[in-house]
Give the backbone structure.
Amino acid sequence: MKFYTGKCILGLGFVLLAGSPVSAADSVKALFLHAPKSPARAGDSITLQVLRGSASDAVATEISADQVRWLFVRSSGTQKNFEPAEIARAVGADGSIVAATGPERVSVVGIDMKPVVVSVSGRELKSFLSTHTALGLETGGTRGINANRTYRVRRIESAATLVRVPGSDAAPSAVAQGKTGQAVEIRPLADPTSLRVGGDLPIRAYVGGSKRAGARVLATNMIKGATREVITDAVGTAAFTVTNAGPWRIEFHHAEPLARDSGADWVIYSATLTFEVPK
């Protein structure tokens, strides 16, 4: 079975590129926004890729405009929210669009996907929950999952990325630290695009706008490929040390079994945040 995501495009200087379909098993993994190249200066365009998978090996995937619930670009004092008709008009034949970026040195791009139910084997579900969620840290947290059964999993997922113009004012940006209000969210409580190696990055995890205590947050530096793991406290906050410069991918997933839901057996909420720490 293949689970197809499609193509989605961001205007205002950001482009989402299509890639390959992903398997149903991979569809429970994270969705990331990735900027292969930063704009040379404010006003230039930038291309974003949509990736799916584990942080260290996520690959380009396809999403379609009708699968997107919310799309926005935020900069200082402004936010562009794309209406459904605008998203539909933005999708080109090749799945890409290029436009000028805004004048702010740091921008936030965010995307919420419409909820979707996918079929996943018990073995694949248990493996993912064990390695990516707080259930994997609990004794017997995944014991009730039958490896030989197929489960219907409702996916609620959001992704965001921070983009800073290289060589711009290195001062922290309030835009980078603001709450986006996405369905699932990793909010940096400091601007990671202005941090230096050795500094600490505090973050807060949200599900449905509420602070998520006990969330298992995974932060991966893409240069070294090493993943750090932290658990959020009673107010959904955790912090990790920025050990290396370069691109980082952060993710967290919150899973719940659904006892009285006719449409799904489990729900998995997923949020990701990507950014680059300066050298």
User: Anything to note?
Assistant: Helices lie at 84-90, 122-132, 174-177. The longest helix spans residues 122-132. The chain has one domain: 2-277. Residues 1-21, 91-100 have pLDDT under 50 and may be disordered.
